Amino acid sequence: MTKAMRIHETGAPDVMKWEDVELAEPGPGEIRVRQTAVGVNFIDAYFRDGTYPAPSLPFTPGKEGAGIVETVGEGVSDVRQGDRVAYASAEGSYAEHLIIAADKVVPIPDGIDDRTAAAMMLKGMTAEYLLNRTYKVGKDTTLLFHAAAGGVGLIAGQWARHLGATVIGTAGSAEKCELARANGYDHVINYREENFVERVAALTDGRKCDVVYDSVGKDTFDGSLDCVKRLGMLVSFGQSSGNVPPMAPAILGKKGSIFLTRPSLFNYTATRAELLDCADNLFAVVKSGAVKIDIGQTYPLSQAVQAHRDLQDRKTTGQTVLTID
């Protein structure tokens, strides 16, 4: 037997229960990973509370983590027992052991520890595709990134600065604004004290932004549209405040023929080559020192309920990691 967080009905954080589960064997093309660290992300809460439908009940939440390959299944050749691996597309990472397809994990390079790898896979690869693929950010780019002090935001701020962009962020407290400034942002707007649309217009002399990255959703979407320049792009990649209400496509024309996209990491890393390329770019920028991974808080895996409460109440900064002894 092994231990895992199980959800029998969707709802608030306390629907997660720490339970015994059977220790399964990997099938063909699969491996079993002895987990050492697990990353916490808003998508975990979306599945937990029912915003995203789970494939079945009960289920174990979690997409991201790192550990040691314990057993390999039939036909697995490029992953070996004892390898350190990380992943960002699991089903059920809130567990001491995980069965996962071998082609969904990546080797952790020397110089990066397991907690750092677990903390950055989903959020770091999200930043990678947002800045390098969804919109090609460069030295002539002016961008707005909501939730600048969150997990993706802190990585994206550093990375965008490394790429030479002018980086504007939003955050909800003076402390979070200061944290964002220390992680690459040229300007940070406290949305509780200032109107971010008016402030972006002032900061850009009315030119607005080439691209706006919005993971907040309902509370910021309309304002985000007003921060995009003519022919610019709004990237809606999450909804921490709730789903964006339905909108008529004609509004995009009225706002300046702007582009709207709703990307996901899983579509940008659908092939093995895409996954390895994305992960390699992330590992390289972290190992170079241009991007530092800030683990803001850790909890034992058995205390994932509290981790979700703190995430939901916006009490966390940087990356949140669940540890496994």
TrEMBL record:
Pfam families: ADH_N, ADH_zinc_N. It comes from Fulvimarina uroteuthidis. InterPro entries: ADH-like_C (IPR013149), ADH-like_N (IPR013154), ER (IPR020843), GroES-like_sf (IPR011032), NAD(P)-bd_dom_sf (IPR036291), QOR-like (IPR047618). It comes from the Bacteria. Keywords: NADP, Oxidoreductase. Residues 11-322 form the Enoyl reductase (ER) domain. PANTHER family: QUINONE OXIDOREDUCTASE PIG3-RELATED, QUINONE OXIDOREDUCTASE-RELATED. The keyword Isomerase does not apply. This is Quinone oxidoreductase.
